[in-house]
Amino acid sequence: MAQPIAEELAKKQRAISIAEFFEKNRQILGFDSAPRSLLTAVKEAVDNSLDACEEAEILPDIMVSIENAGGDNVALIAEDNGPGIVKEQIPKTFAKLLYGSRFHAIKQSRGQQGIGISAAVLYSQLTTGRPTKIISKIDRSKPAHYYELVINTSTNEPEILEDKEVDWDRPRGTRVEMEMTASYVKGRRQSVLEYMKSTAVVNPHARFTLVEPDGNTIVFDRAVDKIPEPAKEILPHPEGIELGTLIKMMRYTDRQKLAPFLRYSFSRIGLQTAEEICKTAHLDPESDPHDLQLEDAKKLIDVFKKVKISAPPTDCLSPITESLIYKGLEKEFSVDFIATISRTASVHSGHPFLVEAGIAYGGSLGKEDRVNILRFANRVPLLYQQGGCAITHAIEHIRWKNYSMNQPGGGLPTGPAVLVVHVASTHIPFTSESKDALADVPEIIDEVELALKDVGRKLKTFLSKQQHLSKRREKEEIIKKILPRIAEKVSQVLEKPTPDITPIVAKVMGNLLVQRSVSKNGDGYQVEINIRNYGDAAFTIKLHDTHQYPVRDAQPEPKTISMGRDTDHTWKLNLKAGDRETIKYHLPFVSEEEANALPGLILEGADEAMVNGAKAVRGYVDE
Amino acid sequence: MNEHIQQRDKMAKEALLGIIERFYDQFENQKVPNIVMPTRTKANIEYNNDSEVWVYGDSTSTRSAKTVKGANQILKMSYVVELLIKEHLENNRGSTLRELYYISENWDIAKFNEQPESDRMIEDLEIISALQREYFHMRPEEDGATLFGSLKLKETTKRGERIIHCRDDVGEGGYQIPFNVENVEFLEHDAKFIIAIETGGMHARLIENGFDEDFSAIQVHLKGQPARSTRRMLKRLNEELNLPVVVFTDGDPWSYRIYASVAYGAIKSAHMSEFMATPAAQFIGVQPSDIVEYDLSTDKLTDQDIKALRSELTDPRFDSDYWKTQIQLQLDIGKKAEQQAFAGKGLDFVTQRYLPERLTEMGII
Fold first, then answer.
1. Rounded to two decimals, what is the model's pTM?
2. What is the 3-state secondary structure (H, E, C) of B36-97?
3. Is residue A328 over pLDDT 50?
4. A positions 469-488 inside 8 Å of B (CB)
5. In terms of CA atoms, which chain B residue is nearest residue A507?
6. pLDDT attached to residue A41
7. B 108-167 → A contacts, CB under 8 A
8. Alpha-carbon distance A401 to A399, whole Å?
9. Which residue has the higher pLDDT, A13 or A557?
10. Prediction ipTM score
C-alpha cells in the first residue's frame, strides 16, 4: 500500500525538478543553515539506525563522526550495527526521495519526522557535487555491498556510480558517508552534541559514539541492555482520518463493499457500527467503495464524528517507561534527585498518545539558570522553536512555586533542574512542516501538565525531606556540640555545678521529655514522673517503671505485671503536641539510697531519637 | 588602686556576670538560653528629641540557642565574658579589639571567624550592659587625640596616679587623652570654654599665638573624625565643668559631619550616643558665610561635595534654619575653604579677628 502513494507523490513532483523542489522547501526540510544542515543529516541517519535496530531487536551501537573536509564542507560518517539493507533496496533507500516503508503505517515511529536520509543525500550532492558512499551488510556470512550513489534530480531515481562487494570487518550494519556544506557548532542547544546527549537520555538501551572534528571522542554508553518493546501497527481510527486519506483508502482497497471496507480498514468499527455509519450517512452498505464520490466521503467523515466509536487502542504506542527515562537521566546528568512518570494513554482527535515526563534536580546543574527543557516527540529530540511548543506552554502554565522552584516573571522556572517531556503518538500534531514544535492541542497540554505536576510533587517531597534532615542535623549540632559547651562555660564562670541540659535538648529537638523526681514523704518517698511532649506530633506511648518496691496511691493507677522479683508498672499515655502528663505514686519503707537508685524508665512506642530522659524502645502501642 | 576605678571594675564585673547568670538561670529553669537585644540595623536607629542624640529604637531581636547561629553567638559571648572578667577585670589587664580576635583563636568552636565579628560582640556587650567597652578594659587601636589648656587633672594609670596640668606640665604636643577617659578626674581649671579643632595645623597655630591663655580656652585636637575617647572627653568637659563647647573645622560638608558626630553621635555607635554626644556643642566655623564675608581663598566644590551637601539638607541632624541657610549658600557659591585659609590674611588674623568676632557673636565671650 505504501509504494503507490509514494509514486503518486513523486508523479506530482515530476513536473518540477526535485532540485527545485528541494530549494523551495529547504527550511521545512531542515537544511536552511550550515549548522542546522549537519544536524538534520545526523538526525536522519541516527533515526534510521535506531528504528532499524528496534525492528530487528538489536541493541543499537551507533557511531557518528564529523570531519572537516576543507572550505565550508564537512564529512559525515554514520555507522550502525543494525540489520543492514538488502542489496536491491540500498539505492532506493538512500537515493529516492519519499521512499520508505513507514508512510501511512499507523504506528508510532521516529521516521514520521523528517523527509528521510535521501534528503541529506540530495543536499550533499547539491552542495558538493559528490556521491554518497554506502556500505551495508546483512549477515556475517554475506558479503558487504559498497555503493556510490547520487539522485537523478529530474526523475527522482537513484543513479549508481559504483557498485561492488567489499570486505567489511563488521558482522552486520550500515555505514553512510557524505560530504556537505555545513558546520559543526558547539556550546548551544541546537548542536550535534546536545542532540546526541538528548537522544541518549531517551534511548538508554543504545550506545552512541560521537567523534568531533578535532578528534575528540564522546561515548554515551548504554544504561540498560533490554530492547524496548517494538510499537505495533494499528488500523487508522475513524475519528482522526482526513478526507484525502479516506479517498485514497477507498480507491486502493481490496474490499468490494462499503460495510466490510469500513470494518476492516479502521480500528474500533465492528459489524454493528459499520451498519450504523452507513445508515446515518444514507449510503448503501453494499455499495462499492471504489465508486463513491467526494460528496460520499465527506458524508462519511461527518458521520464518523456523530456515531459513537470507542477510543482507539493504545497498545500501538511504545512508551520509554519510567525506569528507562530515570536511567537515561541518571547516566547523562550528575544530580541529587530524579523522578519520572509514564502516563496512561489518551486520545487527541482520534489519535492515541501518551505523555512521559522526568525531572532531574540538583547536583552539578546551575542553581540560577533557567531549567533545561528536553522535548521529545516519538523519542526524537525537538531542538528548535522551544518557545512555540505546546510542551513549553504547558511548563509555563504550571505554578512552579508550588513545587519548590522559582519562576521569576511567571515564565519558565529557574533552578538546578532538567525537565524531560516525551509525547508518543501515532500522529504528532506539529505546528508546521519543519516539525520542531507541538501544536497547542488542549488534550496534550493537559496531559503534559499532569505529568509534570506529578514529578513536581515528587521533587517537592524530596526537597522538604532534605530540608527536614538538614534542620535535624543542625539541631544535632546544637545539642551535641554547642549547648554542652555553653553549659560548661557559664558554670565555670560562675563556679557552679554544670546544669542538666536534658530538658533543653528535648525542647530544641522537639522531643518527648521524661523526668522523674523523688522526695521524702512520711515514712517513705514520693515519686513524680513528668512526661512532656515538645514535638509537633501526637504520641501514644507506654511508660514502664520496673522495680521491686511496692507502689501505693498511684495516680493514675498503673497496670502491673509481675516479673519475678520485680514488678513492671505500666501507664499508657496519649500526648498531643505540647501536652504534659504527671504520674505520682508513693513508695513506703524505702531508704533514701534506694529511692535515688531506682532503675531507669523505659518508654515504649517512640523512636530513640525522639525521647530524652528515658530509654526508648520501639514497639506497637495500640490506640 | 584608685577607689573610683575599683568601683568601676566592680560595676563592670557585676554587669558581665549578670549576663552569664541569666544564661545559667535559663538552664536551671529548663529554658533554651536566649538573649533579647535591640535590633542593630539602620532601620532601628532614631533621633531622640529629648537627649538630641541618635539612639536605638524599640525593635528588638532574640538570639536563641534554638538555631545554630544563635547558639554559637551565646557560646562566644560566654567565652568573651569569661575573658573580660577573669583576665581583664580581675587581673587589671586590657587588650585591643584586634588582640581579642587573636585570643579567640584558642577557643576551638567558640573562635571568631573574622575581626568584625568580635568587634560586634563587644558592641553587643556594651548594649546589654549599658557600659562602654572601656569599662571592660577594651582598648582602641588608634591613639587618642590631644588636649591643651589651663586644666589640671588626675589620671590613674597602671603605674600609679599622675597629676598633670595640661599646659604647664606638657610639651607643645599637649596632653594625650587616654583611651579610658573614666580614668581621668578633673581637679581645677580657669577656662571659659572648650574649642575643638579639626586640623593639627590650626591647633598648633592657636597654641603658638597663645590663644588658650588670651581667651581662657581649652583646646582639643579632633584629628579628623574624632575617636570615641575624644568625644567622651568633650562630653565630660562640657557636663562636669559646665563649659560651652565650640567646634572649629574646615568649611566643607565632611567637616560639618565631624561637628554632627561630636554634637549628635554617630550611627555606628548609637547605643553609646548618650555617653559620647555633646548636644550643646556649637559650630563656630568655617561657615560658608565666612567665605563670603572674609573673602577667603577657596577651592571649587567637587561632585561628591555637592552630593554630600544635598544629603545633609535632608539629614535631621542639620534640620535647622541656620544649617539650611548655610548649606544653601555654599551650594550657591560653589566654594569651600580650609581652616588654614585664614593664614592668607596674616598669621594672627584667626586669633585676633576671626575667632574673637565669632565668639562674641555666639555670646561666649
1. 0.58
2. EEECCCHHHEEEECCCCEEEECCCEEEEECCCHHHHHHHHHHHHHHHHHHHHHHHHCCCEEH
3. yes
4. 474, 477-478, 481-483, 485-487
5. B32
6. 93
7. 109-110
8. 6
9. A557
10. 0.73
